[in-house]
Structure formats: structure tokens, C-alpha cells
Design brief:
Radius of gyration: 21 Å
Number of domains: 2
Structural class: alpha/beta
CATH architecture of the largest domain: Alpha-Beta Complex
Distance between the termini: 82 Å
Strand content: 15-25%
Number of strands: 13
Shape: globular
Length: 337
Amino acid sequence: MTPPAVSVILPTFNRARFIPEALESIQSQQWPSMELIVVDDGSTDGTRDLIERVGDRFTHPIRYIFQENSGAYAARNTGLEHAQGDFIAFYDSDDLWYPHHLERLAAALTRHPDVAWAYAACRSVEQSSGRELAASTFLIDGRPRPFLNLHATTDEQGFHVIDDTGVLACQIEHGLYAGLQNSLIRRSVFEGERFWPGYRVVEDVLFLARRLAAGMRLGYYEDVQVVYRVHQGNSSASAHGGSTEHMLAIYEEQVRGFEAIRRSTQLQPADARALRRRLAHVAFWHLGYSGYLQRGDTPSARRAFRRAIREWPWSPGMWKTWLGMEVRQALGATHHR
């Protein structure tokens, strides 16, 4: 039998309430040849029974795999071991694909054999109300994200192939917004490479950085092809109503991940500088200022500030904020004497 053109890998953990919509969204895809691999990461909410019940109506081959809870990236790695398609798509169970999503991206990869990763924008909505939070993840406050300023060659279908030498530095410092849920990737990208274990959120960012460092090329459409639904159960930094502890854990993971990139990946000087700026920014503003300082943990905030300044001592904003905190602390101590 001819392998399916697209292997859709759906990792899930106690998300049975989203599964019917997920299967409907995947079923609606206009790309005719695909297989679906559902990796159940230890669910206890009846996911297996639901897949058996509604999976009969799914017209493409579907495989259900159960494993002990190991995390979403481990589940994706399991899916990759079973994938047979030329292209890999990762479906997050709480998101929705527009019907043309796979068709557009698969056609782009077919037209451009030198491109290994294709993606498109998401529309962000509040899951509970349907309220739009962002019309396009490629924009911030109506302005293009930095990666849209990278040089790219655009084909007749509007697909932008990035050919800018600054692409890795941009991914490290600002992000390319090529999430797994809005991308289609050649299976060859995963030959000899898997997602790193031990990360809950940021490994897709780190994985893309590693592949770019190895010379992989990617491209994008600017149109929206995915609905990203934000709710309290999100594991990412977009989690709706996430606690300070939740956000601190995410940013601590970012720091740990980018430090691992620095140790394991041969970076060009411009890319290494971008990594230092990213580490400093996360350590200072997210961990130190918005995290530790806001919850009253001044000693941890000081440690984060010092770490950031050591990483990137050329930021007037960080120096001003840090010294201002120290002056306020000193004045407060004098006042209470």
C-alpha cells in the first residue's frame, strides 16, 4: 500500500471533551490522503472508549496508542515512531484547523522540495466565550511581528520562503510563530532527531532552533488557517488566567532550554548574541520583574536581575529598573529605622 501523504499525530491527556470536534476538524481537511495517530498520554477520562465509539465514523486510517503519562512531547515522539506519511502534522486536541489547512501547506511543500517546514497564522479565541483575542498570531497590536521583516521569496500562490541569514537569530530572540499546531513538516526533519524529554512547553521552539541551525529551510502563508483556543487548561504561556507559579515555571523552562541550546548547538556569532539577549530578557523581565518581584520575593528577583545583567550588560532599561529597585529598598530600610 502507498503510505499516506500526511500523518496527523494527536497527543492527548484527559481532553475527551475536545476529541469529537478535533476528529471533525481533521475529517474536514480537503487533503485526501492521510492517517491519524492518536497518542493517549495516560488519560483517565474515557478517551479510549470515546475514540472507539466515534472513530468508526472517521474515513481515514486511525490508530490509537495508549502510554503511561510522560508529557506531550514524549507522546509526539511516540506518534513519530508509528508515522508513515511523507509529511507530519501535529494536532493539538483543543485547536481547530480550517478545511484548507493541510491542502495549502502540503501543496507548498510539494512546490518547494528544498523547504522542509511550512506554516500559517492562527486566530486566537477565548474557548469559553468564543471572543476573539487576536485576529492573527502574526501581528501584535496590529503590527507585523519581527519575523515578517525577514527577507523571503514569495511564489505565485503567496507562499513566503525565508532566505534570510538572520532566521535563526529571529527564532531565538523573537520567535517565528511556527508552532507545531499550525505547521506541516517533512518526515525527514525527524530522522535522527526527536523532541527533547523533560520540557512541558518550549520544546517546539527549541526543536525548530536546532533544525534551523542544521540548515533547514522553512516558509509560511500569512493567512489564518488554525483557531487557537485559550483556556485555563493550556500548558503554554497563553494559558487563560494562569497563576504566577505557572508562568514562572514556563519561563524557568525557557531559560533552561536556551541554555541547553547554547551547550549543544554550534551557533554563529550573531545567533549566539541573540541567544544571550533572549536569556537576559526572560531572566530579567519575566522571571525577575513580572515573577519574583511582583510576588514579593526580592532575593530571587535580585538573583534573576544579576543573572540577566551578566548575560547582557548593555541594556539601559535593565540597569535602570534594577538600580531603581535597590534605591527604593534602601530608602525603605532607612525610613523604618
